[in-house]
Design a protein that fits this description.
Number of helices: 13
Order of helices and strands: EHEEEHEHEEHHEHEHEHEEEHHHHEH
Radius of gyration: 19 Å
Structural class: alpha/beta
Bound molecules: S-adenosylmethionine, iron/sulfur cluster
Strand order of the largest sheet: 10-9-8-7-6-5-2-11
Largest sheet: 8 strands, parallel
Number of strands: 14
Shape: globular
């Protein structure tokens, strides 16, 4: 069986050692490290930003010297990939190029999630990235201005074009689309898909936004529109809608309960050095495990606080959306038995994402 979707959660089956260690109650080093190079200030002002970043906040920059030292150790302990994400916007870090080059030289897989306004800053090494995902979220300038609250739409489009002209493999470039009340009609999504085709990027991926209020019915309709476009345009571009559970949870059709150990697959280093329990507890004080500016990552990751939280954490108290839920399902349901990793292969396009959990 070939996995063609880079977001297919079955990719955890390629990390048997880590999964087995987790099952035995151990704490392995994470397969992926999400690194926030920047926090607080952003050059966009997306009204929905889950990290509340904006152009009026104070900028927090990752200390590159300390970060690189910690990353070197994590690589030796088995961590395989670094995802530059946020926090805020990774391309705002003045040392982005040097940091990225060092991460590549250490042997890591590397990916970046960005608004794309300053992506030309890594143009010279972009071909060494496993993926470059640009959060465009609209097929026209008007919607972008409304949702990102920025005038940079055409700059981003030119930058995407620039990456491809510079020789970056288009299959490594993806455009993501957060489905919001303002952009989720069929015609909006179609415009975006057609734009992505004209830009020759490798894929588009749709996700439901996490908002306080989001109408369940509109989520169902959005999913129907995406499926329709997938049927219409799948010969021209790869279209993904992330994992099904994300949409089911968004429309309240699924509940979850019990412990969470899948957080162990992905570690996070915030821009101020803090290591949170998991992605969604980035800014919650009680879930801060420690700070890499003061302590070794390993001591934090294997420390008492992490152990205690792993015992106490209950998934029912978490947000509806969490990628760890998708991994949890794969790891616990009977599907696992029919999905032995040796039978699964990645298609060439999606292989690059296998270490990004
Ligand atoms: C916080 S941003 C940081 C990286 C970069 N600034 C960007 O926008 O791509 C990381 C991802 O979170 C997504 N995001 C932001 N707010 C969200 C929300 N309320 N619900 C779901 N995803 C959200 C963005 O669309 C983006 O793809
Ligand atoms: S570009 Fe990213 S970090 Fe900046 S406001 Fe938008 S979602 Fe938040
Ligand atoms: S289920 Fe909860 S504890 Fe587990 S990774 Fe997701 S948000 Fe974190």
């Amino acid at each position: 069986m070939k996995i063609t979707n880079p977001f297919d959660p079955r990719k955890i089956l390629f990390h048997k050692e880590t999964i087995n260690a987790i099952k035995q109650g151990l704490i392995p080093y994470p397969v992926t490290l999400e690194v926030d190079l920047v926090d607080g200030f952003c050059n966009n002002n997306c009204y929905y930003c889950c990290f509340k970043c904006s152009s009026i906040n104070k900028i927090i920059l990752q200390n590159d010297r300390i970060l690189l030292k910690k990353l070197k150790n994590c690589y030796k302990q088995g961590t395989k990939a670094v995802e530059l994400v946020g926090g805020s916007e990774p391309t705002l870090h003045p040392e982005l190029l040097t940091i990225s080059k060092s991460i590549i030289d250490m042997g890591y897989d590397i990916g970046i999630v960005t608004n794309g306004v300053l992506i030309h800053r890594i143009q010279s090494i972009a071909k060494y990235f496993n993926f470059i995902r640009i959060s465009l979220d609209s097929g026209n300038e008007k919607v972008y201005r409304k949702t990102h609250r920025s005038n940079a739409y055409m700059t981003v489009i030119r930058n995407i074009d620039g990456l491809i002209s510079y020789g970056v493999n288009p299959n490594k470039i993806g455009l993501s689309y957060l489905c919001l009340p303002e952009n989720s009609h069929y015609k909006d999504i179609k415009e975006f898909v057609k734009l992505a085709i004209s830009l020759c990027v490798g894929y588009v991926v749709f996700r439901p936004a996490v908002l306080h209020k989001y109408c369940n019915e509109s989520i169902g309709n959005t999913l129907i529109s995406i499926r329709r476009l997938k049927r219409e345009y799948s010969k021209k571009i790869r279209i993904f809608y992330s994992y099904k559970n994300r949409w089911l949870r968004a429309s309240n059709q699924m509940s979850k309960s019990g412990e969470c150990k899948m957080s162990l697959l992905t570690g996070i280093i915030q821009a101020d050095g803090r290591v949170p329990f998991c992605n969604l507890y980035r800014k919650v004080k009680n879930y801060n495990l420690g700070n890499v500016y003061k302590k070794d990552f390993g001591k934090i990751w294997l420390g008492q606080k992490h152990k205690k939280l792993l015992t106490d954490m209950r998934r029912e108290h978490c947000s509806k959306f969490c990628k760890a839920d998708d991994y949890w399902d794969i790891n616990t349901t009977k599907r696992r038995n029919t999905l032995k990793s040796r039978k699964i292969q990645f298609s060439n396009f999606s292989k690059a994402h296998r270490n990004f959990l």
